[in-house]
Every structure is written in C-alpha cells, then in structure tokens.
Amino acid sequence: MNHRKAVGQRRIRRRFRIRKKLRGTAERPRLTVNRTLKHIYCQVIDDHEGRTLVAASTAEKDLRGEIKNGGNCDAASIIGKAIAERALAAGIKAVSLDRGHCKYLGRVGALADAVREAGVSV
C-alpha cells in the first residue's frame, strides 16, 4: 500500500476512535479542533441538536490583524481565547475537547490551555 494512503487511513481510524467516546450535549458540547499547515479552526458543537454553537479560526478577517502566522502556537492561543469568549457569551461554561487525529501537544495543547485560562472548563 502507498505510504501516504496508509498514513491517511491511520489518521481516519484515530479520529473515529476518539470521536466515538465523545458526544457533545447541551450542557457540555464538543470543542473540535482542526489544524492545517496555515490555519487552525475550532468549533463548539452540540451533537444532540446537530448544530454548531460557536466557531473561530485564524482565517477570519477580524482576527487576522492580531495573527501574524496562522500555523503556530501563538495563533492557536489567540484562537483559544476567542472561542472561549464566544462560548461564555453563548452561556457555555464547559466543553469536551475533540482533538481529532492530532496529539495533545503543540498547537492543540496551546489552544486548550488558552480556553482553560479564559474561563471555560475543558
């Protein structure tokens, strides 16, 4: 099998293995994190309703002025603060972290730490 294809298949299996243990409820929705080389995206999702409650990313025009490079830990912490402020404004005080196929370090860890510091329980 092609190496790139095998790596992609392992990522998909990891993502499903993690996601089957997490379900976003109205009391504790799911904070999902998606990272690319240039940007980081996150959403707070209520799985029972099937809708996104709040979202933030480095690709947003209003956050682009603060962020020099969207693919580093500084940008992830800015996005973590932004998503936490929006979640608190929507009345969300606790979330479950869905890190997808990514390890909990680097940008994903910086985002989660920033969310915690801003007052949302992760």
Show the helix and strand layout.
Blueprint: H1 3-19, E1 30-35, E2 40-46, E3 51-57, H2 61-64, H3 73-89, E4 96-98, H4 107-117
Parallel strand pairs: 1-4
Antiparallel strand pairs: 1-2, 2-3
Helix pairs in contact: 3-4
Summarize the structure in words.
The structure is a single chain. By secondary structure, this protein is an alpha+beta fold. The protein is built from four helices and four strands, in the order H-E-E-E-H-H-E-H. It has helices at 3-19, 61-64, 73-89, 107-117; strands at 30-35, 40-46, 51-57, 96-98. It has a four-stranded mixed sheet with strand order 3-2-1-4, with helices on one face. Helix 3 (73-89) runs parallel beside helix 4 (107-117). The protein is globular, with a radius of gyration of 14 Å.
Offer a concise description of the structure.
This protein is an alpha+beta fold.
What's the architecture in CATH terms? 2-Layer Sandwich
CATH class categorisation: Alpha Beta
CATH topology: Nucleotidyltransferase, domain 5
Low-confidence stretches: none
Could you tell me the mean pLDDT? 92
Terminal CA distance: 38 Å
The number of E-state strands comes to 4
How large is the radius of gyration? 14 Å
In helices, the fraction of residues equals: 40-55%
* Biggest sheet strand line-up: 3-2-1-4
Number of domains: 1
Give helix and strand order, one letter per element, not per position. HEEEHHEH
Helix/strand-derived category reads: alpha+beta
The coarse overall form would be globular
